[in-house]
Amino acid sequence: MPSILIVDDLLSIHEMLDAVIQPTGYTTAFATDGEKALARYKQDKFDLILADIDMKPMDGITLLKQVRAYDPNAVVIIMTAYASTESAVQALKFGAFDYLQKPFRVDELLATLKRGIEFKQYADEQPAIASGGVGALNLEQRLVGNSATNKRLIQQVKKLSAVRTPVLLQGEAGTGKTTIAEILHEASGVSVPMVRIDCAVSSEENFRSGLLGENGQGGSWVQQARNGTLLLQNLEQLPEPMQAELVGVLRNTAHGFRLICTTTADLEKLTDEGKFNDELFYRVAALPVVLSPLRERAEDIPALVKYFTSQAANPNFDANLVEFTPDALAALKAYAWPGNLTDLGQVVTKIAAGTETRLVSIQQIPLRIKDLKSWPTLADFLAGEETHYIEQVLRACRGDKALAAQILGVDVAKLG
User: Are domains 3-123 and 294-415 of this chain identical in fold?
Assistant: First the structure.
């Protein structure tokens, strides 16, 4: 039975919270200040700490820091008065799972506690399998590859399928963020479809009506995602004025759906630079998953080639019979794949669908891939040769700006 340590210097708060929490099946214990709470936690290791921010001699923030130093997996929820919201956001930065503003609603309290307990189960690496069950999703067949990197990713997805805590999927364009979001949604076992919002293309008007709604209760997209999953793609593109408003929506509605966000940017860096709302970042990044670019897991390419080949429709013979020669595979493994899995999939599927011979040779590999001397390296790009890099990608894509933008991970407008 999950245990909760309630920390507040007012005994009346202890009594009120105990009356609300006990009937839900959680056990409760109490402390009147941070020092006593820390000693009690070290003794009994509670599943969750619910602590007031304003206490003496040790306040809630100091308790949070010391508990997290003692146990990095500790789950702490801070209670705060409305006037101290800024301090509560700082608590998120120091590792608090969430915060509750007094006075809070009972349903809000219980939903936050539930999410905190779920997160604790994940952090302890002992999650209960979700009702839908990720085992039936054949992860190894969908997240293809035998590299250590890919095996770790599969294990992460298995664990994440057991909780409803927000997940942030970070990685370059084409690394498979949407695929993982779909897997997590399917693992929940719900019948409602996943609601997908691309922050890079939606208009401000659509954001306000579909995402924000009125009175902080969320718009039509949020309502459609209830009991299911809300996927916010390219979160870094959400206009700054709406980021703070989205925080309010999440506080009121997040317990009603699973939130998954994707980004190609370093959101933590943007937050530190003041270019992304800090509270929104801390709320969506509780469980970050970083997807490696394909160039860092080249050993997976032969298995991925086999997978993408099987997806092709060749008019001459079963595409499953198509094989790539060792030199053809070597060329594919040596290439940097700026568009990652999306890029590789398009190339392999096109070759497998059009080949007139069962064996694909090096001659059938596109020139842009096998002629490495003519292709700019990542080092060229990082050294400031951005214009040259973009020109080369456009040339390789035969002027297809939409494909080039997808490979580069930029808005098509940037390509002129």
Answer: no
Nearest of 200, 148, 150 to residue 179 by alpha carbon: 150
Claim: this prediction has a pTM higher than 0.90:
no
Looking at 22-127, list the stretches that DSSP marks H as alpha helix, in order from N- to C-terminal side.
34-44, 60-70, 85-93, 106-123
Are 236 and 263 in contact by the 8 Å Cβ rule? The answer is yes
Domain ranges of the chain: 3-123, 138-290, 294-415
pLDDT tens digit string along 132-143?
Answer: 455 545 788 899
Q: Which CATH class is domain 294-415?
A: mainly alpha
- Convert the pLDDT of each residue in 214-273 to its tens digit: 776 788 888 888 888 999 999 999 988 889 888 888 876 655 788 999 999 999 999 999
Give the SS3 label for residue 208.
Answer: helix
Q: What are phi and psi of 7, to 5 degrees?
A: -120, 115
Q: In which residue are the tokens 């084409």 written?
A: 174
Written as six digits, the tokens of 134 are 């990720």
What confidence tens digit (pLDDT) does each residue in 81-99 have?
765 667 778 888 888 988 8
- What SS3 class is residue 15? helix
* CATH annotation of 3-123: 3.40.50.2300
Hey, which CATH number is domain 138-290, 3.50.50.60, 3.40.50.300, 3.20.20.70, 2.60.40.10? 3.40.50.300
> CA 52, CA 42: separation in Å to the nearest integer?
19
